[in-house]
Amino acid sequence: MKKRRLISVLTCVLVFIGLLLIKVGEWVPQNFGNISFEQILFHLIVPMEGTDTSFVESFVEYCLPMPAFISGLLLFFCYLRDRVVSSDIKNNIFKCKQYNILIIVTTVACLFIYGFGITDCIYAVGIDEYWYNISHPSKIYENYYVDPSTVSYTFPEQKRNLIYIFLESMETTYEDFDHGGAFEESRIPELTELADNNLTFSFGNNDNNGFLVPSLSSWTVGGLVGQTSGVPLNIPIDGNSYVSNKSFLPGAYSIGNILESNGYQNEILLGSDAKFGGRKYYFEQHGNFNIVDYNSAKKNKWIDEDYKVWWGYEDLKLFEFAKIELTNLASTGQPFNFNMLTADTHHIGGYPCSECEDIYGDQYSNVIRCSSKHVTELVKWIQEQPWYENTTIILAGDHKSMDSNWFNDIENSGYNRKCFYAIINSVAVPKTQNSRKISTYDLFPTTLASLGVTFNSDRLGLGTNLYIETPTLVEELGFKKFDKEVTKHSNYYDKYILYGKRKN
């Protein structure tokens, strides 16, 4: 009897796991869109401090009730079945056989639910593609990668300041039809005007308006790494040892490393906990950045000790704090590389600050428009400063938005979504007026070139300098093939970038 009860309990546990996996398979695409398993894996093994708790609440509310209710009901049924039948089968062989058959049928049915749950989850979160990628290594690094640490850099006599603003989930999709967007009325008219009057490398070709985002750079940390180091973020299953305060892509050589070695002061400002996703570790280990995050804001008494909204504090405050930090950096007389990351336009629905107006009738559109307005106001403030003449500004979406429901109709129409990108006050001039097809990784060498830095390579990492005529890897291979090769396992990547081993 004890064995039968054990079987009943194990059966109910398997049913719970199977149903939970089915719900997870539904919840992940609904909340994050078509993301890669590599992204899910990365966030499972890196620090999660500062996570927006609404996602945890959403997971609990959507995924747990149904599996818990059904498995609990099944457990109660098994208990009643065992109790009623056990009293009748001691001296009745026929009833004993019936009872055993009932156990077998119940167990098989529950195992079926468990197996279906696993299979459904595997395909929903892309574990099948992940297995294919690690079992079919790519040679893209051997064929195209240029190690930035081996390249020679020449800076202008007067080094230019760099302000790099990572715009959370900012896409050219939000623009109007005339600019290649997906809306009759633009959600980001202010940013569109900035792009029209500055450098985007599209040169009027709306099909190339913005940049394409590879799968392994389709979340914030992956996007930041890709744009500043020219490589994807591909951490293995045992990745805890690779993302820590001692190790985060030790073989990557970023623009932060380059600028620090040439006398720049590096800083990043963000309104959330920098430890989330290992961002603090990456920037500290690749350029010794001064990290000014949500915790710093409390220490500086910019906000109250118990203040917390959204991911930390809202962008309305972030832009004001940026003015303080930029003024302090400029006062030192030392060239600076100032990075900042917005957050209000994060999914789901964004965060409507006190200045957001209801213009479009849906919250996400209103938040996107509000961000466009505030980013542009900050840019105009920078342009009024005495040090602006010697400063280049980069505006770039960190990745495409994951607010999948909001984009349903847009994606079903076949629209090709891309991230927003513009360079303001570049000292370099493109050698060609041909419209370029750009990926996340091309921003790394292009940013450096925009400062007037020259280097003896057309490419850094997997990114191509857009100021010259050399084709980008997207132009050469096509985006689908390029993305497929970058997503595959690479022995070169693991050995020299992930582990940071030196070449002989």
Estimate the strand proportion. Answer: 5-15%
User: What is the assembly state of the chains in this entry?
Assistant: single chain
- Report mean pLDDT, rounded to a whole number: 85
Q: What structural class do you assign from the helix and strand content?
A: alpha/beta
Number of strands: 10
Name the shape in a single word.
globular
Are there runs of 5+ residues with pLDDT below 50, and where?
A: 237-241
- The spatial strand order of the largest sheet comes to 4-3-5-2-6-7
**What is the distance, rounded to the nearest whole angstrom, between the alpha carbons of the first and last residues?**
66 Å
Specify the helix fraction band: 40-55%
Topology as a string of helices (H) and strands (E)? HHHHHHHEEHHHEHEHHEHEHEHEEEHHH
Rg computed from alpha carbons, rounded to a whole number of angstroms:
26 Å
Q: What is the overall number of helices?
A: 19
How can the largest sheet be summarized?
Answer: 6 strands, mixed
In short:
This protein is α/β, with parallel strands linked by helices and 504 residues long. The chain has 19 helices and 10 strands.
Q: What does this protein structure show overall?
A:
The protein is an alpha/beta fold and 504 residues long. The strands form 3 sheets. It has a 6-stranded mixed sheet with strand order 4-3-5-2-6-7, sandwiched between helices. It has a two-stranded antiparallel sheet with strand order 1-8. The protein has a two-stranded antiparallel ribbon with strand order 9-10. Helix 1 crosses helix 3, helix 8 crosses helix 14 and helix 13 runs parallel beside helix 14. The radius of gyration is 26 Å and the shape is globular.
